[in-house]
């Protein structure tokens, strides 16, 4: 082991070692606090700058210029949205938050695919997720033990008191974004050839997955659970095998049982469609109200600007009696709708174009398939770029999988 460490240090420059270390640290801190993750991001950027020569960086970017230009066009939407806004403060904040849509891909796509080890990155990601989960569970356990009647309080572990937003409160995060990261990791363990040996012992593998799966349920994220199920079903249809079908059936049974136990998730799932097949999702009516008010503005081509979109949402909520949404100033809860309102058809088409570039470049090989499904579904339920964590997840994995899976196939 010592010889291996000495060999590693002697065969790599200090900047190569720092770049690899900062890459794994960035992935590991993605599930943790934004400030910590941002700090590591700049270490990741700095190490890359010192590692590569400008000419080499430029040559590498040229290999994936279509993907980079697509992401750059996506960021330009926020600049255009600022120019069209009367409320420039919010628009400037959006521009600042989404700047990493350019910075992260610029770093990743300026490297060669050999500079990244996907298996080690997933291991680091898993360590970060598990660390985050332990922190959250520690806070929950402390809350139970310090209660006047801990034996009674323990029963609330499966209730909303310790689920959803409350589950990730110590991380100051959003449950759906944490759920999406869990899904990315879980399906990676299940699907990636690099983890084939890990999957050989089924009992140990189930024990490995169990805490991540449990916390996914604790987040009470409908979109997280839906993404996991859809990926599982699509994987089956790509290669029909009896054992895969049984695995998915087992997954659905486990989800059904846990949804009954964690009744907060169960109640949220039951609010999507009623027994008659009618859509009862609360966001559905809000989307309709927003579109109704947007029609009056007649800004279909360029939208009303990123800084003025929240005002339109608030007006729509007020008119239609969505008091909770108005009080908490909910965004559109749909990235597609968000771009349509803020940037018009231009913005929506650019975003769809960026997704199409990913589809065409990666051919949805390997984990690109999982990420594509997650982005497409998540964009319908959440405003991905509404918080920094969403921008980081999108920019990093989008650019990484473009680099790894475009052109020739690679075994990662």
TrEMBL record:
Q: Where is the O-antigen ligase-related domain?
A: 209-352
> Which UniProt keywords are listed?
Ligase, Membrane, Transmembrane, Transmembrane helix
Molecular functions per Gene Ontology: ligase activity
The signal peptide annotation in the UniProt record is none
**Cellular localisation:** Membrane
Q: Please give the start and end residues of each transmembrane region.
A: 66-85, 121-141, 176-194, 206-233, 245-262, 336-359, 371-404
What's its membrane topology? Answer: Multi-pass membrane protein
- Could you tell me which InterPro entries the record lists for this protein? O-antigen_ligase-rel_domated, WaaL-like
Q: Which domain of life is it from?
A: Bacteria
Name of the protein this chain belongs to: O-antigen ligase family protein
Q: Which organism is it from?
A: Aequorivita marisscotiae
Upper taxonomic lineage: Bacteria, Pseudomonadati, Bacteroidota, Flavobacteriia, Flavobacteriales
